[in-house]
Amino acid sequence: MVFICRHSSSSPATAVGSASRTMALRSEHFTVYVALCFLLVALCTVTVRASGGSGSKVLSLLQPYDFLYYSGVRAYYGEEWAKAAELLEKSIQTKEALLRTRRQCHDDCVASGTKAFNKLDSEEGSMWDLWALDWIQQKAECLRFCIGRSVAPTGQLPVSNDIEYEFNTRNPYNFLQVTYYKLEKLKKAASAAHTYFVANPSHLEMRNNIEKYRRMEGVTEDDFQDRETEKHWVLYDAAMQHEASSDWLQAAEKWRACVNETLWRIDECRVQCEVSPQLLPEDRGVDGVDGAFEKAAALSLSLLSCRQSCVTQVATRTGRISAQEDFLPTQLEHLHIAQFKSGDVSGALQTLRSFLLFYPNDRDSLDNLQLYYETLGGDAESHGIHPAQEIAKYVNQSLQEKSLLYFGVENLNFTFTDPDLWTPEDVVPESLRENWRAEKQVINEKIKEGDQTEEVDDSGFYAGGSVPQVGVTITMDDDALNGTNRVVLDGVMTEKECDKILQLATVAASLGDGYRGRRSPHTPHETFEGLTILRAVKLSQDGLVDQSDTRLLHELGERVRTLLHSYFRSPSGLFISFTHLVCRSATTGEQEGRMDLSHPVHVDNCLLEPETKQCWREPPAFIHRDLSAILYLNDNFDGGELFFTERDAKTVTARVKPSCGRLVGFSSGPVNPHGVTAVTRGRRCALALWFTKEKLYRDMEREEAEALWAADGQSALKKDEEEEEKEGGATAGRNARSHAPKERSRGRNAVTGRKDEL
Ligand SMILES: O=C(O)CCC(=O)C(=O)O
Ligand SMILES: [Fe+3]
Predict the structure, then answer these.
(1) CA dihedral 357, 362, 368, 374 (to 10 degrees)
(2) 634: phi then psi, degrees, rounded to nearest 5
(3) CA-CA distance, 425 to 411, in Å (whole number)?
(4) Ligand 1: does its nearest atom lie under 6 Å from the Cβ of 603?
């Protein structure tokens, strides 16, 4: 490097010269380092606490000493001697100041920590912190030995997050169901399919598979067993059922068991927090700037936060995203009522007292308590009725943890989301409460304004971009459609192309697809046919439909993607997540006075609740859909208009009449509730497409279809080669080529498209 040559040839005095050679040898690293330091300094100012005898004052060191040092060395090599001297001196001073500051902070903080521990100091010195460290070490050694001895023989390999995710989403059962199907163990396959579906209720293919298993000989309804049933939910549902039929004795029994099981589950989960590998929050890692105590505090806070999060984990049903709020206190409320109604007054009183540990000021409960005292004559103590011990222990422990966590939030830059609604106000630091109040006020104001103002779409799309296809026109934009992120484009397909796809739908339907002849899932007055890309490719492979039609179906997806990606100025990548060629036909003779819809009003990526105008982004909604598109193919039918509404699902804001080559695109979220009016005559066909911004959720079926084509191309190629070979013209290189196997693990839903197709 130029740098090395120049300076090695002009080293100063011998002593310095040898130093300069050492530096010169490292100058490659040095250059990179200096560049990094410049960047660092540009980005931040280091603030170090320095202290005088009485109090501490903040010493702002604009530049870290390592940077000063390297700048000094650089100046030295640049022969800027004065500058070099200044910078090198400064670096030495800064380092000294930093050490002094650290020492002072250590002395200032000696007395901090829990006072009770200071009492443990003896004449031999301050030993309790060493005892604490000793306790930690003993525990670590015991765990290391125990886990090593118990798990090592079976191999405790580090498990990646991806694998954790696979297991949490029950993906192994997706593999198992196909495996058992292949082994002709249908009962086991049915159970595996069901187990997977419980955790993935929006998985269309698995739903189809389950339907297929149901129709298979030898499979009974009892075979659809969830292999990972969570007992507390079984008890919860049973208790609810007994309650609904006013069987209070049974209800009380189930609720009691449910509370116990829930406590046990929470405990199991909390223990895992201690023994599983703990991650330090980002920027608190080994390379961070924090000292040993700060790192230890960060680690202990992560542990506490992990323990607390168990409440949410246990209160979330498999397959759901949101936890059931106030899970334990709610169960206690139910148990209390069931006990009371079944005549177990002392049991009810005990449960009420347990509930009051969560909500000590709850008016109704306090009134009830009073009533019990009057009935029993005397208070709970005089009857020896205390809150359940496990509940008292649980609440105390949780409160302690929360106060430590909130200290971390307030003072140590820790982030913690409290999973409970019952946390008493005084545990939360005033400054946080103030922030919450301010946030709540803003939300309330927004809700108030909400009715008058326009809906805000947080999808990241921004309608109004260009339309990059010759002949395509924008027929309706946001204004014309009275909404946000909506568009109607015309000219996306030619008449000939519409005919080809209609023909494809007709042939596929006549051959029998999952939906053939089925009543529509939305109305008894229509039938419904659906064709996916993969099914189309398989049909064309079997020579039952024209391959060029299937290719066109595939290409249309890409065409629509390009148009909408550009029009909605999608900031990120946009991936096709599902394609469905759908025809809805009016059934004959059942159309008089129809009041229903062909497709009721809905939002594509969340569950719309028109009464509250809320939209819940959780399964069974297709929550990963970000952009929706319908490409229409014909207009020779009556009805079948697409319409948009407000969140009340009633107020219609725009209507679109289908025709060949007309494309409607809109963001899939709550700004766009929509439905389809009844098809009262004829058959309405459209290609529905959904897009996702997350690559993880891209359509794996589509990729499988592409792989089938590639394999086809390969075998066609091979055929050609064999022919050629026969004719003596094959080349070794071409024969060696083979179709690469599909990569198996591609993240969250990596394997779904492939495995579950029966
Ligand atoms: O066919 C249409 O026009 C709309 C269909 C739709 O909204 C859907 O499938 O989610
Ligand atoms: Fe829809």
Answers:
(1) 80
(2) -155, 170
(3) 18
(4) no
Query: Do residues 536 and 501 make contact, with C-beta atoms less than 8 angstroms apart?
Result: no
Entry pTM:
0.54
Instruction: Give the strand pairing for 627-632 and 679-692.
Output: antiparallel
Which tokens sit at 525? 């007055």
Which atom of ligand 1 approaches the CA of 580 most closely? Answer: 9
684 in active site? yes
Which numbered ligand comes closest to the C-alpha of 530?
1
Fold of 491-588+597-705: Jelly Rolls (2.60.120)
Rg (CA), the chain: 34
Out of 353, 647, 684, 702, the active site residue is 684
Q: Which atom of ligand 1 is nearest to the CA of 642?
A: 3
ipTM of the complex: 0.99
* 550-582 residue pLDDT tens: 999 999 999 999 999 999 998 778 999 999 999
Distance of alpha carbon 128 from alpha carbon 676, whole angstroms: 72
CA distances from 698 to 77, 489, 624, 687 (A): 55, 24, 9, 17
Domain positions in the chain are 65-120+130-230, 232-279+296-452, 491-588+597-705
3-state secondary structure of 606: strand
Predicted local distance difference test score (pLDDT) of residue 376: 79
Cβ atoms of 698 and 524 closer than 8 Å: no
Helices (H) and strands (E) in the chain, counts: 25, 17
What's the CA gap between 484 and 657, in Å, rounded? 19
Helix 389-411 to helix 430-450 angle, to the nearest 10 degrees? 90
**Rounded distance, CA 396 to CA 417, Å?**
19
Cβ(597)–Cβ(522) below 8 Å: yes
- Please tell me the number of Cα atoms within 13 Å of 476 on its side-chain side: 19
Distance CA 347, CA 386 (A): 10
Q: Among residues 188, 183, 190, which one has the least CA distance to residue 209?
A: 190
Give pLDDT < 50 ranges for the chain. Answer: 1-61, 155, 283, 452-453, 513-516, 716-758
CA distance 252 to 342: 8
- Distance from the Cα of residue 356 to its chain's centroid: 34
